[in-house]
Amino acid sequence: MSDTKDLLSNYDARDIIEKDKKHLWHHMVQHKIFESQDPKVFVEGYGARIKDIDGNEYLDGASGGVWCVNVGYGRESIAKVIYDQLVKLPYYAGVAGTIPAAQFAEKLTDLLPGLDHVFFAGSGSEANEKAFKMVRQIAHLNENTKSKVLYRDRDYHGTTIACLAASGQPEREEAYGPFPDGFVSIPHALCYRCPFGLTYPDCNIECARALEDVIQEEGPETVGALILEPITAGGGVIPPVEEYYPIIQEICGRYDVILIIDEVVCGFGRTGTMFGFEHYDLTPDIVTMAKGMASSYAPISATAVSSEIFEKFVHDPSRKYAYFRDISTYGGCTAGFAAGLENLRILEDEDLVENARVVGDYLCDRLRELSDYEYVGDVRGKGLFAGVELVEDKSSKTPVSEDVMNAVVREIAEEGVLVGKTTRSIPGLNNTLNIAPPLIVTRADVDEIVDAVKVGIERGCKQVLG
Ligand SMILES: Cc1ncc(COP(=O)(O)O)c(C=O)c1O
Questions:
Q1: Global model pTM greater than 0.85
Q2: Under CATH, what is the fold of the domain 40-71+352-465?
Q3: For the chain, what are the domain ranges?
Q4: Residue from 130, 151, 156 to probe ligand 1 pocket by mutation (most atoms less than 8 Å from CB)
Q5: Interval 368-388: pLDDT, tens
Q6: Angle, alpha carbons 192-197-199 (nearest 5°)
Q7: What is the percent of the chain with per-residue pLDDT over 90, rounded to a whole number?
């Protein structure tokens, strides 16, 4: 057997690419393309920069591709606390406690007033699954039928079958049905393509009020919860208008609907507040989180709940449904807790949430300068979290094709910047570039990103559209 250290540090680039092509199944990728091109293989990163195996360096405008490396690359202090913790105790199942689990649980609940218990797992999808299971079990405990979960069109909540059932992105779902019953959609909140054909502010915020119509149609006695991303991420970066959430909150309160806020993307500073819902003065009953929670140095997720919800699961053990009978093996890995604690320390000590707000405002302002450009239909965002929706024709808002998007992203990469894009999510509307760099970026980095985006749009659109 070869030495592992040697395998990871002494390699031949061509050999790695061949191994990759032969054995590695890339996520979300049609492997046919690798008949004519090589897969991208990344080797190292520092700060907001990342290098591939051919030595090309990029400014990572997508924080690891899926907006998760919030504190940037090369954080030795995170690696060190993980190392120390793993040597001491790598694991014990979540049936018991560990020192980093208790420390991290307390820190998280300090950040989330009103929520006082967290349930750990290994991915954002799992965190949302736990929330759905809690909702269903509460209905059993209360001997009622309030087990349906409402979700919003265009939102995404994860890759498992129930999370897909609770996601409003039909292209992600079409190959994977049938889905479980009990998940029902409400309209999305994107003004640029208002589902009611109205124009803000003369719209009475119908997208929020529609929640009540859906609850009425389904029967209030059947609706247990509503899950929302505070700002839709993969569905096109959609911050709702400020009047939206107070209406949602009021309707949830009136119909006794548990409000689950999915902070998997927005959490941990991405939007310029620690959690995305803080922009909107919301009081969620459950908050789910992952990604930026440990900046993806280790897998970790959590479902944080109010004491009211937690107390529903504390009973005489002989009672049916007395406790939350749920476990995720990797909810007991101590690396994630240690990484999460150090990640929070870095966010706080380096004031990165504030940086995301200030430099994020600059990013959004600079991107809005592109609004006059012929292919830019809409620019949206909050903090270091922005979307640029591309259209072939501004008056008809005809979205650009997937080929155009691919060309644009490729051309932006040619300029040395990586950005994301909506991919096979909303039928016909996968036309938004996603820009979400690590929270450490400076104005100069933002200038570099925006300049590359500008050139990439121009060249990519011209290449395909002529
Ligand atoms: C808003 C949101 N929720 C949940 C998830 C699922 O997280 P994971 O991929 O860790 O299961 C994602 C993943 O992108 C997400 O964007």
A1: yes
A2: Aspartate Aminotransferase, domain 1 (3.90.1150)
A3: 40-71+352-465, 77-349
A4: 156
A5: 999 999 999 999 999 999 999
A6: 60
A7: 97
